[in-house]
What we know:
Layout: E1 2-11, E2 14-24, E3 29-33, H1 40-47, E4 55-60, H2 71-74, E5 75-78, H3 90-100, H4 105-114, H5 130-142, E6 148-152, H6 160-175, E7 179-183, H7 187-193, E8 196-201, E9 204-210, H8 211-217, E10 222-226, H9 230-239, E11 243-247, E12 251-255, H10 259-268, E13 275-279, H11 283-291
Parallel strand pairs: 3-7, 3-8, 5-6, 6-7
Antiparallel strand pairs: 1-2, 1-4, 8-9, 10-12, 10-13, 11-12
Helix pairs in contact: 3-4, 4-5, 8-11
Bound molecules: adenosine-5'-triphosphate.
The site of adenosine-5'-triphosphate has 11 residues, from β2 and α1.
Amino acid sequence: MIEVTSLSKTYGAKRAVNDISFTVDSGSVTGFLGPNGAGKSTTMRLILGLENPDTGTATVDGLPLAAHASPLRAVGALLDAKAVAPYRSARNHLRMLARTHRIPDSRVDEVIALTGLESVARKSAREFSLGMGQRLGIATALLGDPETLILDEPVNGLDPDGVIWVRELVKGFASEGRTVFLSSHLMSEMALTADRVIVIGRGQILADTTIDALVAGASGASVRVRSPQAAHLATILDAHDGSVAISGSDLLHIRGLDAAQVGEHAAAHGIVLHELATTGSNLESAYMELTAEAVEYRSDARPAGGAA
Ligand SMILES: Nc1ncnc2c1ncn2[C@@H]1O[C@H](COP(=O)(O)OP(=O)(O)OP(=O)(O)O)[C@@H](O)[C@H]1O
């Protein structure tokens, strides 16, 4: 578990991180979203102890990372995949790191296999494509078989196979009860990978919630439910502050409640559902709405509803 409490960091006149607090739970994947310059990398560096905060604390499993007996076994991190000596082979890079942390060479071979780098393990890092470099960065993060993974843009430069591989890797990691905190600008990928999201803008937390709740809270989002007991369900949801529109005999469109809440109210009253979905909005539009005021670097010719 990662716990960030009242964390602030200023560079000159720039308040990169402004009094933020949040928790990243173990056993799930938490996404970290925000426009360019929002403070994501700075927050990750502060958690990793690579920078000192002006105020506040960041702990991993109850301790600042530096206080862990073996930090590489506590946290595996990918911040900048290019941070590898260019003339050293991938295998040697991993072996040197392993030896300084008393990790056996057999683990190096394991992470090379796990990240699909066997055929290029003897090549020097400067010969690596962006995607291979990214895989090496992930191999480095996995080396200590850590309890927590912190990954800044892990799918950057990966091909579709690689993107799916990272998705499955981090989900599998979380399903073992470990902690995953990752940033990405790819909203569609984040929606498929993360259970929760923390959104940051101009150094402040804008949202800390589930993806379903974030999407449901955006204007335009509604929950679509089909049920043979639609009228009964409408009455119940209405009493729980849902704004309900009925179409036909079995279809409801609900605003003000997310899909999980609708499903739970239905289950509590033994109501059968034939369909339950969030419609009319997605993570990208919810994110754009949330961060509209926090975008610092925006191109003039940005299409309406376009990507950040
Ligand atoms: N070492 C530094 N010196 C000066 N300013 C910095 C430094 N690191 C970050 N900043 C500034 O702090 C702010 C937050 O930067 P940060 O890299 O944390 O954002 P980010 O959310 O990771 O952005 P991106 O998505 O573009 O990577 C930016 O305005 C950035 O220019």
